[in-house]
Known about the structure:
187 residues; alpha/beta; Beta-carbonic Anhydrase, Chain A
Amino acid sequence: MTLLNEIIEFNSKFVEEKEYVRYQTDKFPDKKMVVLSCMDTRLVELLPKAMDIKNGDIKHIKTAGAVVSSHFGSAMRSILVAVTELKADEVFVVGHYDCGMSSINPDAMIEKLISRGIAPETIQTMEHSGIDLKKWLRGFEDVSDSVENSVQIIRNHPLIPKDVSVHGLVISPETGKLDVVVDGYKA
């Protein structure tokens, strides 16, 4: 059985037994906050528990490394939608220790893409079109610095209202302990 078939089979039972009822809420976050976190598998359940978050409390955006890499990328657009349309008035950027983005090697990643069937000509075409793949694929050296950089991008965005608090945290994927990097109330 394929993974898709397993999911669809489980989902049929989930819907038939009305398991969804306990998760019902509306689209507005009860805690009026948006969390940008890493997509790390260790955080799926740990992060909400460590932050006392339940279904319906937040808008949750996930990126590799909890990074906002562009002022006008999809992560920033999602934050703006949460703030302007969905009544969130605080933003929490939550990175984590032992993040895979701290060890990303762009050259090795490009080689892996080629080994998985991406034509070297495609890579060359992108680079000749002005896309700096090595810069785009690069991670970071220090998670706290990365979180602080993402906080600054969000806070200084021309479309973020000045009354929106933007915080930066780093979580331990082993214990759930949160360390404050940026207290948005003091900014």
